[in-house]
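Dear colleague,

Following up on Tuesday's group meeting, I ran the structure prediction for the two-component complex that the binding team flagged. I've pasted the input sequences exactly as they went in, so you can double-check that nothing got truncated or mislabelled along the way. The C-alpha cells for the whole assembly follow below. Feel free to forward this to whoever is handling the docking comparison.

Inputs:
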Amino acid sequence: MTLFPLKLQAALSARRGKVLVGPIDLELEGVGATVVIGPNGSGKTTLLRMIHGAARLTSGEISWACDEARARRAQAFVFQRPVMLRRTVLDNLTYPLQMRGTARRHAAEQAEIWAKRVGLETMLDRAAHNLSGGEQQKLALARAMITAPSVLFLDEPTAALDGRATREVEEVLLEARAAGTRLILSTHDLGQARRLADDVVFLLQGRVLEHTQAREFFNVPQTAQAQAFLRGDIVE
Amino acid sequence: MGDLWEGLSEAFRLLVTLDTDLVEITLRSLQVTLSALVIGSAIALPLAAFLAVRRFRWRRAVIAVLNALMGLPPVVVGLLVYVLLSRSGPFGVLGLLFTPTAMIIAQVIIIVPLIASIAHQSLRDLWSEYHDLLISMNVSQAQKMRTLLWDARRALLTAALAGFGRAIGEVGAIMIVGGNIDNATRVLTTAIALETGRGDFALALGLGIILIGLAITVNLAIHWLSRTEAEGRW
C-alpha cells in the first residue's frame, strides 16, 4: 500500500476566525524522518494534527496517495504529554491491537515483545498512571508502534524527558526508521532535529518558511528567520 | 426516646426470630430494587457514554433535561405509570398494575436520569482525557463508548449506588403502582408507611432500621466485591 506522496495544498486551520496554521503547501515523500521545527506557538502541533486528521481543516486539502480511511489506519500518534488508559501497562499495550480485532493471546505476545524493547517488561502488571514521565512516554511509543504503523507522528516526544530517556526513545525511533516506518515529528530541540531529521520543515507563525534536506537546512538556511532560530535568537 | 428504644428492640426481635413477613418483604424490596437497578443501569450507562462521545444538535438540551429529571417527583412518576398500566390505559391489557413489575417500571423511570447524569459527568471528564488518543487510534464510536464505560467503572459504580439508594428508599411511586398489597407488592418502605399510619411506631421504626441496615450492607457488599478501595491496577 502506497501512502506517499502526501500533499498539502493551501491547507489552513482556523479557530473562531483566528488562523492557527496555514495556508500551507507541502509535499512529503515516503521515506525517512521529517522534523518540524520552529519556536513555541509556531503551529507545529496543529500541523501534525492536521496531517494526521485529528484537527479539522478550515480550507485547503490534504491528500494521501491512497484513500483517507486506509491512510488513517496506517498511522499512529505519540503526544507530547502521554495519555495513559486507566489500565495496566500490559492492557495499554494490547488495547490498539484488540481494537483492530487481534486475538487477546497474540496481542499479549506482541505486548511483551514491545515492553521488552522499551525496557518495561518488568512493569506489565503495574498501573500505567503510576509510571514515571519517561516510562509513560516509552509506553506511549510502544503502544503506537505495536500496530506497525507506516507513518508515526510524534509531537515533541521527548520534551519532558531526561537525557537517558530521550536517548532510549530516539533509539527506538531510529530503529523504526531503519525498518521503514515514516517518521513525522515536531521538536524545538535542535540537537534532536540534527540527530533524527532527513528533511526539515521550518515553521513560523503558522507558515512554512523552509522545507529542505536536513543537512542543507542546518548548513545554509535560506531565510533570515531560520538563520536567527539556528543561532538561538528569539524569533517571533 | 421510648419509641426509638422500642423500635430498636422490635428490629432486634424481628431479625433474631427471622420473622417470615419481614423476610418476605425484605426479599421483595431487594428483588424490586435490584431489578430496577440492573435495568436502569443497562439503559443509563450506555446513554451517558453516548452523550459523552457523540456530538449532535440537541445534545446540550438532552443533558439539561436529564439533569432536570434527576429531581423527578416519584409520586408523579407513580401516577403516570398508573395511568399507563391501568385497565383503561394503553398498556392495561398487560395486567401489570399492582404487581412487582409495575413497581420496577416506576423505579427504572426514577433512577435512569439520576444514574445517567452522574455517570455522564464522570465519562465526560474521562472523554476529555482520552479524546485525542482514541481519535488518533481510529477506534469506532462503539469502541470509544465501551472503553469509557470500562475505564470509568469505579465512578460508574458510584452512580449505580446512588440509583440504588434512591430506589430502595422510594415509597411514593411504588405505593401508587404496587398498591402495598400484603404478600404481593408490600415492600419495606410501603410497610413503614402503613405501620406509621396505623400508629405502630415501634414496628415502623424497626422496619426503618432494617431498611437502613439493608442499604448499608448492599453498598458495602458492592464496594467489597468491586474492590473500590483496594490498590488500583486499573
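Residues 6-84+138-231 of chain A form a domain with the Rossmann fold fold (CATH 3.40.50.300).

Cheers,
M.
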